[in-house]
User: Fold B-cell receptor-associated protein 31-like-domain-containing protein from Russula earlei.
Amino acid sequence: MTIYYSLTFALLASEMFTFCIFVAPLPFKIRRKLFRFLSESQTVAKVAYGLKISFIFVGVLFVDAVQRMFRITTEVEAAKSIGQGIQDVRAETSIAARKFYAQRNVYLTGFCLFLSLVLTRTFLIIQDLIHLQDEYAKLKKATADNSRNNVLAGDQTREIERLKKDLEALKEQARSQAKEYDRLADQYNKETSQPISDKRSD
Assistant:
């Protein structure tokens, strides 16, 4: 395997490892910290930029591998159609090896490109999921706070109503006491024939 296909295989292996980390059942706090680091880190951004450039080269290798595979397949079919066939075992083995290597390179580069798309989409989906879970937690907390405030407001309303009733009762009691005082004052005036206007004013 040539050096660039070896690097492509290493990139494919790293993509598989990263995908396993993405889909691993991690706790929510750890997952949120991990994806926040991946989305905000400048170092990760530079690495991602370099990977984008490397995927362009992998795409070129993919196109070249596909063309080479079709060319080898066409050569084999042309030789068979002419009737020459492949009589030499070494030649036949060489053609089969070339075809195998071409197909291997197509699968290697193709899976590398495909997994890069899967990783990108998975990363975005998990980010949206984390964002929605954060929003859900905030709404849940806000709902709990509103419920607590509503309970407190209900208690305060009941307390206000009770105090209003007590105030009305006190006013009624004060009016009745004032009437009773006036009645007793008038009765006292009649009995003693002395004005107590000063006492009333007090």
In short: Confidence is low (pLDDT under 50) at residues 196-202. The longest helix spans residues 89-192. The CA atoms of residues 73 and 99 lie 7 Å apart. Helices lie at 3-23, 28-40, 42-82, 89-192, 197-201.
